[in-house]
Amino acid sequence: MLGNQIQGGLGTPGALSHAYVQHPPLRCDIPDIRGLFYDDANKFLIAPTADRILYWKTTLYTPSGPPNSDPVNEGPVLSVRYSLDHKAIGIQRSRHGIEFRNRETGETCNKKCRADSETILGFFWTDCPTCDVILVKTSGLDLLAYEPQSHAFHLVESKKFNVSWYLYTHESRLILLASGMQCTMFTGYQFSAGGIVKIPKFEMMSKSEANNKPVLAADDVHIVTVYGRIYCLQLDRVSMSLNLYRFYRDAVVQQCSLPTYSSRIAVSAVDNIIMVHQIDAKVVILYDVSLDSYAPVSAPLPLLVRGLPINSKQLSQTADSQSSAYGGTIYGEGWNFLIPDLICDAENGLLWKLHLDLEAIAASSSDAPSILEFLQRRKSDPSMVKTPCLAIVRTIILERRSVPTVAKAMDVVLDSYTRLMKMGGAFPGVRRTHEQNQQLGSQPNEGSHVVSQEPSPGTTVSPAVNPDQASGAVNISEQSNSGVEHSIDRGLLNINISSDSADNTSDAVDKRQQTVGEASRPLSSGTLTQHGQHAGTVAISPIEMFQSVFTLVEDEMMGDPAYLIAVIMEFLQSVSKAGLKAPHNLYVMMATLLARSNRYAEIALFVSNKILEPCKELAMQLMELGLQHPPTRKLGMDMLRERGLHHDYVTAMLQDGYYLEALRYARKYKVITVQPALFLEKAVAKNSAHNLAAVLSFFCEFTPSFKTTSDFGRYRHILSEMV
Amino acid sequence: MGLSSAAAGDGTQLCVFDLRRGQQEGQELDKILFFHPADCPILLQLSVIGLCEGIVTFTRIFSPEEDCEVIESEKHSHVFYQAETDIWMVLVVEKNKENELTWRCGALQGILKEAHSLFAMFHGPIRTLLDRQPSAELARGHLRTFLTDYLSDFNVGKKLLFPTYRDSLKERGTVQMLTVSREVALDVQSLTTVLGSCLGNVTCQSLVLFEDLLVSTTLPPDDTLNLYTYAVLRLTPRALHSNASSWSYLRKGTSVSAGPTSSSSNGTTAGERPLLREKLSKGKDGFVAADFAATEARGAVPLTPILWFQQAEERMYLCIYQHKSLTILLLVPASSLINGEEGITHVKKQMLENASQKIVTVEQKLTRGWGGENAYHVSGYRYLLVDPERRVSRASPPGKVTTLAKDSRLALNMLRQEVDLEKSRYKRGDPCHDKDFEACIRTKNNAWVIAKISRGRELYMALEKGGETLLYASTAVEKFSNRYCEGAFSTD
């Protein structure tokens, strides 16, 4: 039933895929543009024309509409990168020169290299405290500092070595510089707000025959950032495998070798899932490396285009019909994969965003606990996580999977809940310091433009003084203070500290990029606020488990209450292990199920060892169930007494005919809320003048106003008739 | 009465007889199903049973609803228990010289009741056995071996020693529970779930014991009680230890009385003589079973006993598994095991596969939280708490109770006897209405003995070296109630 529900949610029924791009794409096929560029630090898609630079902010959820534009000087454009505070534009004009333009003043300045001995391979802006721009040249790196007032650059440091090609992603802040005959020797640096870290030199292994030593191309190496960890994928064309390396502070360690089915691959990261596009085979393979497992999440499946206007009754759309519908080819020649999750179809001028089809992934596996784990780690689309998770738990209970399996599944859900709750609580503080950190770290020289609360904008604050630089981007420093994995991960090269927790990871980086230079501006992408929502919408509380799982399956499980009882017992254990409280109504349900199976002895056992925690709801239910089983009623009464629910206790005693005991109790605990008439009626029913007189005189003493009530007169009369 | 003077040996007799049998003159012997001592002259046996039958018939004239409980003669007391309809068990005990009330009728009846419950658990009701084989050989054979084995526990030298005033802070026929934290209770329950699923579709029942205390059960109270009693008598680590250590001693002790049976019991299995101590031991696989090393020559296979559960209305195989202080009694419904022993082997394998890890964890956690044999000692108090409805009791550790003066214990015994009478009086009056009761008595040796019944639960205690006033005594009870009984005995 629920399986259907999950499958029914597929955008195009019958079409099997685990990843898709959503139609409509961003159209950037404006005439007159001279190529498309991507600025991964700012996530701008950039299209230069003859005298302008057009750019789209791709982080907006609906990046439609006309692009923004900046006037620039005419000339060739090799690459464009906006500064992190968006105040300057860097345009590489040739292999020897870069033009920097101040967007406010329009001032330009040029940075040139020696044309004879070196060429510029590229450049990028950095939030590293000591410099702002890194120039990558065949002869090494130039670290430049930018002075906005004078719109001038000065060289901070120069690192000399030979570079064949390089790879940089702003997400990881990591630059890899290839050198050597086969370009398999790598030097690496991380330029981050925490400072500069040099990665030990390493060689990427490549199977090679004696006379055929392939040269490693930049296209074959991909830096991926997931779960706050930095990985590198290298395609080995000889053995047709993909080597996965992980970067640590002091080492680069090969993790595994993944199979490939294509001579060309591309890599994206969506919601901490590594997507390896097998371009020739037109399929994509997903990997979730969170638990250091390198098995694919699912079988290789094609990429779908979702949301196409369907004008035929054709249910399953082949890749061909899809491509004809949107006017391009899936994995076509013009596809460029942008970091982390964008695809730019340069031929057709389209920009696609990659998505995971969580429902489809969930439906493709029957291993409920690991699917739940997988889903709970996702956060790009919280609404697609919670409902399927609850449905999965319900389904496995209805299917009567083995109790340990169900227990494990519930463990996953509750563990995730506690983790997210813990993080949700800590988040606001982290964010605040994080923003300050951005300003301090990234705009050391900015002068008058800084946000007002900035105490001394001109000073460069060293990371050591910064209390929470951990939550910023790179945290490699030893003094990091807030990480969950602090002790374990000290040596890891992480872009932020608590690398495993769901809260951090690339979002933190996104956040950072957002906040840079626009800390006072509300964020449009939602990455920042997402955490709160994430915790609220992905996490499943014990109460929700009760409401959306147990109450819903209860009716259908009536034939076999023993199984449901065992499941609830495991749930209670999970709840207890996670340090949470179970909803009281669950105890009520448990007691009812046990009573229905005639297992009253176990009710008593569970009440006595507090597995069923004492509460009023349970006490009342026990009294109710106890109408058929007096010892159980007694359990309920005892619970009322122990909980100090005096009124209910007295009423219950009265109901059972213990009116003298009830009177004594009422006197001791001054319970005046129970009507005297109820006591008197019981005494009359017993037909004992003696007792009636006793009750009457008790109330005359206990409640002074009693003598004036009509009850007094009435029962006095009855008493006089009795004697 | 002539029978008392003629009684042999220690003068203690235990007999089981069926009023429906031997009603023809000359066939009186047919009534007797069991008689201890076995070497008692037939005439004397007939005389004892004749007297008992006479009393039973006579008292029924006045009290058709209530059974005769006890008759007191000058030198003996006859304690009656109607185990099944028309099947009576009578225990005859000799009074001591000082003529003090040293035992309690209720406690002795408890022995008869326990003996019968255990017998019925292993062999089914006596009436069923009689119906199955009207010659009664089967019933007599089972009763002879079973009750002889059962009585061996009371053997001290050549005498049978039954509970006296010394045991006034003990309640036979109740279960002692281990108090565990909620977290551990959940672990135990999780283990119970795994145990329950050892057979796949059909749920197995289980009891979990730690040392001699019950941790969890899935059976109804009466069945739990019987199985628990058996476990504490023979199966828990302590019981197994004493099985082994008292082997030679007991053999001497029992071989006299069990004389005629011992020759025929060579090939008997644990299923037939479940109370025979020397045959039970823990195997290498952790399962406790009858040890057949001695009879292996005959190629005997240890048989898993099948038990009858009255409340659960099922016959079940009993598998006993032990890990350190933890004893697990796993009950497999006999109706769902078609291939008998083979099926049991499979269940055991399943259990080891699925539950081993949990068993180890639970044992560790229980051991960590275990306060030792004096865990439930409350200093200054010697107490007994009984919840008759749940068949649960808790008492001061025996080692602490022995420190009480004889006078205190005699007084307590007397008080309990009174309370027993009072209770049965109430029961006759209004069976569904609990009557509260309280008595504090100052003893000869200036101690307080106290009995309090509240909402059906009973508390007995002795306070020595306490204050003199009644206020002191009632405050002490109040304190105890609030601290250890969640206010169950607090004065309203």
UniProtKB/TrEMBL annotation, chain A:
One of its GO terms (biological process) is regulation of autophagy. This is Mic1 domain-containing protein. Residues 436-471, 514-530 have a biased composition (Polar residues). Residues 36-151 form the Regulator of MON1-CCZ1 complex N-terminal domain. It comes from the Eukaryota. GO terms for cellular component: late endosome membrane; lysosomal membrane; Mon1-Ccz1 complex. Residues 524-712 form the Mic1 domain. Residues 433-471, 499-530 are annotated as: Disordered. PANTHER family: COLON CANCER-ASSOCIATED PROTEIN MIC1 (PTHR12897), REGULATOR OF MON1-CCZ1 COMPLEX (PTHR12897:SF4).
Automatic annotation (TrEMBL), chain B:
Residues 15-124 form the CCZ1/INTU/HSP4 first Longin domain. Coiled coil: none annotated. GO terms for cellular component: Mon1-Ccz1 complex. InterPro entries: Ccz1, CCZ1/INTU/HSP4_longin_1. GO terms for biological process: vesicle-mediated transport. Belongs to the CCZ1 family. This is CCZ1/INTU/HSP4 first Longin domain-containing protein.
